[in-house]
């Protein structure tokens, strides 16, 4: 799960040149790296972050990431500047950028230049190292010629075989076979895209494996995003002799979503929604055509939660976030029920009854609170019944798991609703691994959004919920815009 | 879980709860005169309010009917004093834990003598739950009111009537509590009510408000989860436990995800990325002590700020370098369509964010219910003597160590006879702060003044006893007064913010309230009577000698007379010692005490220059002491102004405080002077000299709470000069007050510590003449 970073008004805009196709075609190992990949993306410097919607003046306070010009000449810098100026901002001036808890915006250091040829050498990986889970996407080329196969070094072959012939790696790594995207064309190569995840605490083992399998001899580039790209960078270098190409996680996330949605899901729709979410009988999962994605509110529920308002493929901002996310659900469940896996927590939740744990409006008012239009079934105080000894003794672990799930989900839904209201956006896409196999949460989000917005808001979901960051990292490797 | 031993001591708290005995004198005061009741029963706390009439003694002065017979007889006082009974209205608010509700209802039933009403207004979730119990115990019909409406109306009421109600809490700063002066208009504000759950309401006017959102993650969640995850089951103890915990053991921080890189990235590594995110991972899961970590992670808002107010300027405020949300409410508030408004639990507040939890938050629901019959036509004043003030919000203070009475929070508000408003001449009412020194801020000054008031206590007690020679229980009551005020001073030593910003004024006012409490309405009445009599006898002599002087000499003599008069201040120990030991100490002696020019603050030349110009249209003068001060200092000065063609409004206190001249005394004094002096006589008759009351009973002066009649008159007459006299009114308060017209602030510093602080010596003179910038 990607770490939900909190806070800051990050009005960030997609770099142009950095991801343009032309720069991909630019040849030359050995050329000054900066020429090929201008580190265009900047973030608002929160210390002097412009207040509400000061987008017009925002330029003035942005600053480049420290060291991001390593290797770049001042000429390229100028070019970048001029390019950027020509590009009109999509975000209308004066749009309020809601930033409740301005926090030091992540100012990422130099994007290390990743040496590469026109089409990078195999293997092609995209890595997203979150707070809880590592997401790895791997492109398996299916159009390998005999000649190529012959030239393929042993280590590369073994990686390919190892990843594609197994569905589990070690005791914790899992390949989500059902998510595999078949017959994809990437950079002129045909192949399958595999989706693999393992817990972040197994990162050292993963790096060790890279060392054992002598990854460094492949001269490949590891494009990695998520906080772990920073945390484990040194380990990759010293243990695995691997240079990470670190990428911003929100950039990757959006790139990944847009790309995956565009290729579909093996002929099916990637995006879906729920009809009659509150009714177990009639509830239906239906495909949604995200043909006109903008504007879009993107709610990424990893360990924590980030909420982005996306106005075009290269114009988005982080609206807010909360630390109450998937990690909170799982962590609390572990403490409250003694469960040890996310699956177990969800399974327990599916059998519990949260109304024994939560204090509802009707528990307080005897019915609806009409003065403010609050229905009696609405939760007034999460875990509010647990103040009382008798009620504590009457609840099961399943009830507690359910209440935890409902609390976290309701809260995210309610924040998302207010964001959507504020940003005047009515498509809300929920992604992130919190939603993996989590129909309860998805249906609740769908229902709550619909109910509280009186039908104005639509909750959308995506099949590859947690993998978009990793996909974005892979695309960056391939320079696919 | 070793530290959970804390909950062991908690169990002893349990046994305490079950056998409570109510200290009735302290808690349900004046219950026998209670007229109407209202109750707000929340998830954990009950707030009971009642409206009572209070009978207390007041000293009245009255001219002798036969005064024209032979007034100049040596030993006859200039007027008579009688002590009378007066009935005023009071609101009482009592807050206690729901555990005590039955005991409290029983107590009320037993003590309820006579109420006018058959109904008790009730609100809050518990109003449903306890309806039958209340109806059975009190024999009153429960009439349910909407909780949010009550909350908002109550909030408006308190904000309007208690100047230091809202405060900003900044953890780690000194003082941690910073009270906000109320703005003339409190609207619009955002009200975030954190009870079991959270409601966010936009309040636009007295009657217009809108529920914007809420969260089910509130106090109940903290309590419920805390009870599940730890062995501690009580709210206060959970808070206490949380204060000792380390949330970073449980929460996944940015640095946990980014490693050390957060520093180079410019991120604060302490931001929480995922609450409880660590408790799931295998490596920390085992050694974890959730008991200690929970609270920190959850950042309970605590019992204290159960209402946060976000004033308009904060709502508009930009974002600061605020660490990420610790608690989710902050995010919620931030998303309000109105404006961004982060709000937070204790521990994460910063400069830019000013959530303002009013001190009496928990009582807010109630006021409105009681006020339904009493619309906002009155002004009210907190009675410091009957209010328990702000208890420490600090969970570090273990709840079981708290004195028992701490479980009952009290607030009393007295209805004032007349509505209070801003002085129309204030330059900027919204930024006006009466007090010169904030003793919550200034530790040195606080220490000095607290000690000073402690040392003066004996004298006050003695004076109180002496003022009621005929009373058999005067000594006993005086002793009770001593105890009460002493306790207040001790509370303030430890919690300077207990009653709002601590100032010399609040210390003085508290003392007056405590004196009233024990039926010493006017301990100085006899002293004032005597002083007035003596001074009146000197009046004509003083006028003769002034009239003999040339114009310029006379102006200086008048000012010196004002200053010398101001030496006669029984509130100042340096003076009262002299006055006690030397009964012959008089006007001339006082003049000799004065500092020679140049004075400590000396803009006399400028003033003299001004006097050579055209006369003022109308002067507003705030008088200070009885006796020499008002009669030989102020009246000659007034007389000179009148002779120049300036109208004069002479404003005196409505009620007694120390030996300050009261309005009713001033009427008699003026009448007596008029009998001697044609200038004063004709001015009174023609309405060029007007005696008014300030609406206050304080030795200090709050220009934002003045009698409405006075304010109206000031506007009508077009006052263009304000004269403020005396240490209490011109130094402790209003020294920095900016007015829209010319002002004269003069005082004699009768306290060597203060004099030294200001760079002078005892009896240094402040003569501050100010002309507003064009």
UniProtKB/TrEMBL annotation, chain A:
Pathway in which this enzyme or protein is active: Cofactor biosynthesis; coenzyme A biosynthesis; CoA from (R)-pantothenate: step 1/5
Entry coiled-coil feature ranges: none
Any GO CC annotation of this UniProt entry: cytosol
A single GO molecular function term of this UniProt record: ATP binding
Region annotation (Disordered) ranges: 1-96
Complex formation: Homodimer.
Catalytic activity: (R)-pantothenate + ATP = (R)-4'-phosphopantothenate + ADP + H(+)
Biased composition (Low complexity): 45-58
A GO biological process held by the record: coenzyme A biosynthetic process
Keywords: ATP-binding, Coenzyme A biosynthesis, Cytoplasm, Kinase, Nucleotide-binding, Phosphoprotein, Transferase
Enzyme class, spelled out: transferase
Encoding gene per record: PANK2
UniProt-recorded name of the protein: pantothenate kinase
Pfam families reported for this sequence: Fumble
Record EC number: 2.7.1.33
Protein location: Cytoplasm
Family that this chain belongs to: Belongs to the type II pantothenate kinase family.
Automatic annotation (TrEMBL), chain B:
UniProt-listed Enzyme Commission number(s): 3.1.3.-
Single Gene Ontology MF annotation: ATP binding
Swiss-Prot/TrEMBL keywords: ATP-binding, Coenzyme A biosynthesis, Cytoplasm, Hydrolase, Kinase, Manganese, Metal-binding, Nickel, Nitration, Nucleotide-binding, Transferase
InterPro entries referenced in this protein's UniProt entry, alphabetically: ARMT-1-like_metal-bd_sf, ARMT1-like_metal-bd, At2g17340_3_helix_bundle, ATPase_NBD, PanK_long, Type_II_PanK
Activity regulation statement: Activity is strongly promoted by Co(2+), Ni(2+), Mg(2+) and Mn(2+). Activity is inhibited by EDTA.
Listed cofactors: Ni(2+); Mn(2+)
Subcellular location per the Swiss-Prot or TrEMBL entry: Cytoplasm
Residues of the signal peptide: none
Reactions listed under catalytic activity: (R)-4'-phosphopantetheine sulfonate + H2O = (R)-pantetheine sulfonate + phosphate; (R)-4'-phospho-S-sulfopantetheine + H2O = (R)-S-sulfopantetheine + phosphate; (R)-4'-phosphopantetheine + H2O = (R)-pantetheine + phosphate
Main location: cytoplasm
Stretches of the chain forming a coiled coil according to its record: none
Enzyme class of the recorded protein, top EC level: hydrolase
GO cellular component: cytosol; nucleus
Keyword Cell division: no
Top-rank lineage group of the source organism: Eukaryota
Any single biological process term in GO: coenzyme A biosynthetic process
Damage-control phosphatase ARMT1-like metal-binding domain boundaries: 455-760
Pfam families given in the database record: ARMT1-like_dom, Fumble
Functional note: Phosphatase which shows a preference for 4'-phosphopantetheine and its oxidatively damaged forms (sulfonate or S-sulfonate), providing strong indirect evidence that the phosphatase activity pre-empts damage in the coenzyme A (CoA) pathway. Hydrolyzing excess 4'-phosphopantetheine could constitute a directed overflow mechanism to prevent its oxidation to the S-sulfonate, sulfonate, or other forms. Hydrolyzing 4'-phosphopantetheine sulfonate or S-sulfonate would forestall their conversion to inactive forms of CoA and acyl carrier protein.
Assembly information from the UniProt record: Homodimer. Interacts with PKM.
Family of this protein: Belongs to the type II pantothenate kinase family. In the N-terminal section; belongs to the type II pantothenate kinase family.
Protein name: 4'-phosphopantetheine phosphatase
Species of the source: Delphinapterus leucas
Gene name, Swiss-Prot/TrEMBL: PANK4
């Amino acid at each position: 799960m990607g770490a939900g970073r909190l806070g800051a008004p990050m009005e960030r805009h997609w770099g142009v040149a950095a991801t343009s196709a032309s720069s991909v075609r630019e040849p030359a190992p050995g050329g000054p790296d900066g020429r090929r990949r201008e580190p265009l993306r900047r973030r608002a410097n929160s210390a002097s972050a412009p207040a509400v919607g000061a987008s017009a003046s925002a330029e003035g306070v942005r600053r480049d990431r420290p060291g991001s010009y390593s290797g770049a000449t001042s000429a390229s810098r100028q070019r970048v500047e001029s390019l950027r100026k020509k590009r009109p901002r999509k975000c209308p001036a004066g749009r309020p950028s809601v930033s409740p808890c301005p926090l030091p915006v992540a100012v990422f250091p130099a994007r290390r230049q990743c040496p590469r040829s026109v089409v990078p050498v195999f293997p092609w990986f995209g890595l997203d190292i979150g707070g809880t889970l590592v997401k790895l996407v791997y492109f398996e080329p299916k159009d390998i010629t005999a000649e190529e196969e012959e030239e393929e070094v042993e280590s590369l072959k073994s990686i390919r075989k190892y990843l594609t012939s197994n569905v589990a790696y070690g005791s914790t790594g899992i390949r989500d076979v059902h998510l595999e995207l078949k017959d994809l064309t990437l950079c002129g190569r045909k192949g399958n895209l595999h989706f693999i995840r393992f817990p972040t605490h197994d990162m050292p083992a993963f790096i060790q494996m890279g060392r054992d399998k002598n990854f460094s001899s492949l001269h490949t580039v590891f494009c990695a995003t998520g906080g772990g790209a920073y945390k484990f960078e040194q380990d990759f270098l010293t243990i695995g002799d691997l240079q990470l190409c670190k990428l911003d996680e929100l950039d990757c996330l959006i790139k990944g979503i847009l790309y995956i949605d565009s290729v579909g899901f093996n002929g099916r729709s990637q995006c879906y929604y729920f009809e009659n979410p509150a009714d177990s009988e009639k509830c239906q999962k239906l495909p949604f055509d995200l043909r006109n994605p903008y504007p879009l509110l993107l709610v990424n529920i990893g360990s924590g939660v980030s909420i982005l308002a996306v106005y075009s493929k290269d114009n988005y901002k982080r609206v807010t976030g909360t630390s109450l996310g998937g990690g909170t659900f799982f962590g609390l469940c572990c403490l409250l029920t003694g469960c040890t896996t996310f699956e177990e927590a969800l399974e327990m939740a599916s059998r519990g009854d949260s109304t024994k744990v939560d204090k509802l409006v009707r528990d307080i008012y005897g019915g609806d609170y009409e003065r403010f239009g609050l229905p009696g079934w609405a939760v007034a105080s999460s875990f509010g019944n647990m103040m009382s000894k008798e009620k504590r003794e009457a609840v099961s672990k399943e009830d507690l798991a359910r209440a935890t799930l409902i609390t976290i989900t309701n809260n995210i839904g309610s924040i998302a609703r207010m964001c959507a209201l504020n940003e005047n956006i009515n498509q809300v896409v929920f992604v992130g691994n919190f939603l993996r196999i989590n129909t309860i949460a998805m249906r609740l989000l769908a229902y709550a959004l619909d109910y509280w917005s009186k039908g104005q808001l639509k909750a959308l979901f995506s099949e590859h919920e947690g993998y978009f960051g990793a996909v974005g990292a892979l695309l960056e490797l391939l320079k696919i815009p | 879980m070793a530290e959970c031993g804390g909950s062991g001591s908690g169990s002893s708290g349990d046994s305490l709860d079950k056998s409570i005995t109510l200290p009735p004198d302290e808690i349900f005061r004046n219950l026998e005169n209670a007229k109407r009741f209202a109750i707000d029963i929340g998830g954990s706390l009950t707030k009971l309010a009642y409206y009572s009439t209070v009978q207390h003694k007041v000293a009245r002065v009255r001219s002798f009917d036969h005064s024209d017979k032979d007034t100049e007889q040596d030993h006859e006082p200039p007027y008579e004093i009688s002590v009378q009974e007066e009935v005023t209205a009071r609101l009482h608010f009592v807050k206690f834990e729901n555990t005590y509700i039955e005991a409290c209802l029983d107590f009320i039933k037993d003590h309820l003598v006579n109420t006018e009403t058959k109904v008790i207004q009730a609100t809050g979730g518990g109003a449903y739950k306890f309806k039958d119990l209340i109806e059975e115990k009190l024999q009153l019909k429960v009439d349910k009111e909407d909780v949010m409406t009550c909350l908002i109306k109550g909030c408006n009421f308190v904000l309007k009537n208690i100047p230091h109600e809202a405060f900003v809490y900044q953890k780690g700063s000194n003082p941690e509590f910073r009270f906000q002066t109320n703005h003339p208009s409190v609207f619009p504000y955002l009200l975030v009510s954190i009870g079991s759950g959270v409601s966010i309401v936009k309040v636009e006017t007295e009657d217009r408000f809108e529920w914007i959102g809420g969260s089910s993650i509130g106090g109940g969640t903290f309590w419920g989860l805390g009870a599940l995850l730890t062995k501690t089951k009580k709210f206060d103890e959970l808070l206490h436990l949380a204060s000792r915990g380390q949330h970073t053991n449980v929460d996944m921080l940015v640095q946990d995800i980014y490693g050390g890189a957060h520093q180079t990235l410019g991120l604060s590594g302490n931001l929480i990325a995922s609450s409880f995110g660590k408790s799931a991972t295998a490596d920390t899961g085992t050694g974890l002590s959730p008991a200690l970590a929970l609270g920190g992670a959850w950042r309970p808002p605590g019992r204290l700020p159960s209402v946060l107010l976000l004033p308009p300027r904060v709502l508009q405020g930009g974002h600061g370098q605020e660490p990420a949300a610790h608690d989710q409410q902050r995010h919620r508030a931030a998303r309000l369509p109105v404006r961004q408004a982060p709000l937070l639990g204790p521990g994460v507040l910063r400069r830019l964010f000013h959530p303002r939890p009013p001190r009496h938050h928990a009582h807010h629901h109630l006021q409105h219910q009681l006020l339904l019959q009493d619309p906002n036509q009155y002004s009210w004043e907190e009675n410091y003597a009957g209010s328990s003030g702000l208890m420490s919000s600090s969970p570090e203070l273990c709840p079981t160590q708290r004195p028992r009475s701490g479980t009952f929070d009290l607030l009393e508000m007295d209805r004032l006879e007349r509505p209070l408003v801003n002085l129309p001449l204030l330059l900027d009412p919204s930024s006006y702060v009466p007090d010169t020194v904030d003793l919550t801020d200034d530790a040195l000054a606080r220490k000095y003044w607290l000690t000073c008031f402690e040392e003066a206590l004996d004298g006050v007690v003695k004076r109180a006893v002496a003022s009621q020679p005929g009373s058999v229980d005067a000594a006993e009551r005086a002793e009770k007064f001593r105890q009460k005020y002493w306790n207040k001073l001790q509370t303030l030593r430890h919690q300077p913010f207990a009653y709002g910003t601590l100032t010399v004024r609040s210390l003085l006012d508290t003392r007056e309230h405590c004196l009233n409490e024990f039926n010493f309405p006017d301990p100085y009445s006899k002293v004032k009577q005597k002083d007035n009599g003596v001074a009146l006898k000197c009046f004509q002599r003083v006028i003769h000698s002034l009239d003999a002087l040339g114009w310029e000499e006379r102006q200086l003599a008048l000012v010196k007379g004002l200053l010398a008069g101001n030496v006669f201040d029984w509130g100042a120990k340096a003076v009262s010692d002299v006055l006690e030991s030397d009964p012959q100490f008089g006007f001339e002696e006082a003049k000799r005490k004065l500092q020679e020019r140049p004075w400590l603050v000396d803009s006399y030349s400028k003033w003299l220059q001004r006097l050579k110009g055209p006369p003022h249209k109308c002067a507003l003068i705030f008088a200070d002491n009885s006796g020499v001060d008002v009669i030989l200092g102020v009246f000659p000065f007034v007389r000179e102004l009148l002779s120049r063609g300036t109208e004069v409004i002479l404003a005196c206190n409505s009620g007694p405080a120390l030996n300050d001249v009261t309005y009713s005394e001033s009427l008699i004094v003026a009448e007596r002077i008029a009998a001697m002096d044609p200038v004063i006589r004709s001015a009174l008759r023609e309405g060029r000299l007007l005696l008014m009351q300030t609406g206050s009973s304080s030795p200090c002066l709050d220009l934002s709470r003045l009698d409405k009649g006075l304010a109206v008159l000031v506007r009508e007459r077009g006052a263009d000069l304000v004269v403020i006299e005396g240490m209490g009114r011109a130094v402790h308060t209003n020294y920095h007050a900016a007015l829209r017209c010319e002002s004269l602030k003069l005082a004699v510093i009768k306290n060597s510590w203060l004099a030294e602080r200001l760079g002078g010596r005892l009896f240094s003179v402040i003569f501050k003449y100010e002309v507003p910038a064009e």
